[in-house]
Amino acid sequence: xxxxxxxxxxxxxxxxxxxxxxxxxxxxxxxxxxxxxxxxxxxxxxxxxxxxxxxxxxxxxxxxxxxxxxxxxxxxxxxxxxxxxxxxxxxxxxxxxxxxxxxxxxxxxxxxxxxxx
Length: 117
Prior knowledge:
This protein is mostly helical and 117 residues long.
């Protein structure tokens, strides 16, 4: 089977083997992520095709303030997770990331925040 960016992908078996670096991830952002993932599963959206799941997740982020330049963080480049404000690109990227997490079964490990991060 060929790899597809649209298929579900399991969490790494060994989280210590994942790329390192600084991650900016506030508790408020984790709450949005956790609520989005749990909400999608509770609504049964995890069984939908990826595109439909993305619509479901995206509808949950409607009303998030528009903020241009969200990827232009000061200092060295790092992973920034923020739902406080999104531009059009980060909206789609975050919707995809949440939907992919739902498809990967992350809801079963949300109590292990350090592993999921």
